[in-house]
Amino acid sequence: MKRTTLSLIAGTAALAAVTGFATLTDPAAPGTDTAKAAAVLPVERTSLLCPAPSTSDLAETTYTSFTPVTKGTGSDGTAELQSAPAKPAAGSAAGGKKKTAAKPVLTPKAPGTPATGDTSGGDAPALIGTAEGKFAPGWTVQETTQVAAGTGRGLLGVTCTAPDTEFWFPGVSTAADRTDYVHLTNPDDSAAVADIELYDKDGAVATTVGEDITVPPHSSEPILLSTLTDEKQDDLTVHVNVRGGRVGAAVQALDDKLGGDWLAASTDPASSLVIPGIPKDATAVRLVAFTPGDADADLKVQLASPSGLITPAGQETLHVKAGMTTAVDLGGITRGEAGSLVLTPTDQSVPVVAAVRVVRGKGDKQESAFIPAASPVGTRASVADNTAKGSTLSLTAPRGTAKVKVTASAGTGGGTAAVKTYTIKSGTTQDVELPVPAGLKGTYALTVESLTPVPVYASRTLTTSVEGLQGFTIQTLPDDRGTVAVPQADEDLTVLQK
Fold first, then answer.
1. Is the dihedral of CA 384, 388, 389, 393 positive or negative?
2. In this predicted structure, what is the pLDDT of residue 491?
3. Which of 96, 129, 198, 385 makes the best surface tag, with the fewest CB within 10 Å?
4. pLDDT recorded at residue 92
5. What distance separates the 2 farthest-apart alpha carbons in the chain?
6. Of the candidates 248, 235, 249, which has an alpha carbon nearest to the alpha carbon of residue 205?
7. What is the mean pLDDT of each run of 10 residues along the chain (498 residues)?
8. Residue 105's pLDDT is what?
9. Quick count: other Cβ atoms within 10 Å of Cβ 61?
10. How far is CA 241 from CA 169, 176, 292, 493, in A?
11. 113 and 410 Cβ atoms separated by less than 8 Å
């Protein structure tokens, strides 16, 4: 008989710190006190993927990297963003030869201070980012693009995403005036294989080349949706299912008349959803919902306004048929006040995904953006590339009064961090007066922290003038998953092996 001693707790801690995506505790285990059994530790490695920003020669793109200060991190670490070519180059890792390192787009600064990098023109590639050590917990990168003219003109923004294996995008289109791309980016050393499924108001849409899409290692593939089907549909839901490997996914929606923006993935299917931060001056709001299950969903539609929950007249409920996309125009639902959509089941709980398309302006000065259903801020969330006068932070607490701390970081070119605390009453949305760093130079990051155990949802609206057009883009702030709970053992564990 041989006795083998396994350091189980060390292995578990390493796994949790590297992935950063799982809480390794079992609260249902008999006799388990999770408060004593788990230690909260910072993650040690984070990956982010930024899609290729634009095909327009007039595009100007800024990348802003930010890591909030996290207790418990060491003094060492690295972070970088490097190009992911649209097609694998000769001599790439896929061909078995060593890949030549690309020049990083930017070099992140120490936690607490954002850093920027720029590109211009229509040949900017997708980016693959990796952060380790002190740079990893809560690392976020904002991609912001200005396009002066043409299809999709205006301000486009997206928070670079972590790789995953499943994504839902309600709100895409193959209409004649839309040009929508699904961008898939593979950060790994082996190829990823994905299926793209489309669903319209009648159910699944037959596609020609939507299955077995291969994304080579360390590369990106933009898939034009209109090449997958001959049908012209105003409202579709896209499901990206990754059967091998993992990818980052985002949809770029370009409109001939209403400008363009990025549509980020909806939060995972759930029976209740929150779509935070519809601008108070929205002139049109279109809600698109889809249920992937076998049962229909009946949803109560409410607007969390500054004064409380309101049920819009004539739009009290929404019926979503199983496996079919449902869309409804909500008009100028906010009526000059900040608002967030709250969707809850009227009867049985059926998982749903949803997003809204928001339009601001009139006539040829209209511009559009998307807000997907979001997950709560949780412990902490950050968003970068804020400006002193062009940023709006919306906070909503649909199910209880919440207390929230907001930290404005130092600027990319200088300044001193500032902090404010807010109380968000139950059932309301507030566009809060932001703290601005003293002596601000450049742009800054915002970090939102929940101080009470009440779900808080947040989004940031960024506004700027693009060739006389009031361009805008909206990003939600989900939990940054910068820490993980790691179980603690009171004694060494051994395994006896014969």
1. positive
2. 54
3. 96
4. 35
5. 82
6. 235
7. 35 39 38 60 96 93 96 93 66 39 79 94 90 97 95 95 98 96 97 97 92 96 95 96 98 95 98 97 97 96 97 93 97 92 95 97 93 98 97 97 98 97 98 96 98 98 91 97 81 48
8. 85
9. 22
10. 12, 26, 13, 39
11. yes
On whether the CB atoms of residues 187 and 47 are closer than 8 A, the answer is yes
| Residue 483 contacts residue 40 (beta carbons within 8 Å) | yes
Specify the DSSP element, H or E, that contains 213. strand 213-215
Whose tokens are 């004593």? That residue is 36
Strand locations in 150-212 (E):
154-159, 166-172, 178-186, 192-200, 203-205
Q: What is the pTM of this model?
A: 0.88
Query: Phi then psi for 16, rounded to 5 degrees?
Result: -65, -40
- Is 150 strand, coil or helix? coil
Spatial separation of the C-alpha atoms in residues 165 and 435, rounded to whole Å: 37
The conformational region for residue 150 under phi > 0 = left, psi -120 to 50 = alpha, else beta, is left
Say how far apart CA 294 and CA 162 lie, in whole Å.
29
